[in-house]
Structure formats: structure tokens, C-alpha cells
Amino acid sequence: MTRSVFVRAKDAQTAYLASLEVDARFDELRDIVRTCGRFVELIGFHHEITANLLFLRFSFTTGDASGHNMATLAADALLKHILDTIPGISYGSISGNYCTDKKATAINGILGRGKNVVTELVVPREIVHDRLHTAAAAIAQLNVHKNMIGTLLAGGVRSANAHYANMLLGFYLATGQDAANIVEGSQGVTVTEDRDGDLYFSCTLPNLIVGTVGNGKGLGFVAENLERLGCRAAR
Length: 235
Prior knowledge:
The strands form two sheets. Strands 2-3-1-4 form a four-stranded antiparallel beta sheet, covered by helices on one side. The longest helix has 19 residues, at 136-154. 40% of the residues lie in helices and 25% in strands. By secondary structure, the protein is an alpha+beta fold.
């Protein structure tokens, strides 16, 4: 899970020097995060400087939770520590919109937010013909024309798929997730190939934000669905 903050500096040079300080103190910042909970761990950060503003995008592991609240609490602790120990900067915001939460953005598509999942299967030629009533070559061509060229013409952001959001919304509601995360979850790429008549089909979702513990997971139907999915088994 990611959360971004931003701070203000006198000028761009001061913001740049502050970013170097943050990088040099990474181990120290990891220790700060460890005081925020048993399951949250700082694993990296990226920064961006615009004018005199320094944006910091922190990445965390959050155990079996999707981690929205854990990431925010950890980012708040990091921001306080950074302001207390690095000179020349002042408070901007606990959320800098560089995370990016519930928005389809290039940074999420490139770096990911949540789980980065690749699924793939090969559908035999006979099933493509008898059940789908088409050919692998036709599906592969349609995927290029519709999902790739069509999305390009529409100005899609790091995305080439028909409608991941439809299926994700159903899954998120059934398993107690934050349904608004289908916004970034809708980003992804569908790839198809004709393999001598067999159909190779793959979906890549870089922003799958899911958890098996936390808010919403205690509802009866949610607990039942998580049980059926094997998400409540002892580990």
C-alpha cells in the first residue's frame, strides 16, 4: 500500500536537499514505521519535486489488510519525524495525491498500488471453436483493435482492457473490500495470442487492493465468502 505526503520548502534547491536527507535516513524511517503497528513495514519511497514542493510516496507492506489506515498512520508519523529532523521544510499535507488513492494514474500503472497480479490461461482450439464460436486469431486481432488501439485513441492511462471494473466491483463487494478502489483497479492490460489455434489469454492488474482482515470483513456474507475462497485457513 502507498501513501504520499508533501512538504513545502523555501525553494527547489532546499526541497532537493531535503529529498537527499530522506533517502539517507531510510533505515531510521523504517524504525519509525515499526512503532506504528506490528504488521506495517516501510519498503521504499519515491519523490517528486515541483517548484518548492517535495512530494514523497511511501510504500508499505501491511500484512493481510489492504492497509489504507495503516499506511496513513505510518505516513503521518513519518511526516512528523521528517519535519522535526530535516531543516528548511514545513508541513504541506498528510495526503499529497501522489499515492494515488482511488484515481487512475500513470504512477499507479507503473509502480503499482496494492497487489500486482498476472493471470493467464491457454484455451484449447476446440473450446474456442465449439464454445466461443470463433477462432483464436480473431480474438487476438479484436483485442489489439479494441482494447489497445481503441484505448489509445480514448487517451487511456496505462490501461488496455474491456471492463475489469465490472468484475472487480462484484468481487470487492462480496469480500468486504473498499469498493471505490475499483477506480485504480480498473487499470490493467489484456494480452491475447493465437498459438497455433489455441488461445493464450492474460490479464495484468497492477493495482489490486484487497485484504482479508480489517473494516468490512466481519459481515456475515463477507466472512462466508472469504471462507469459501480459503482466506480464513490457518497459516
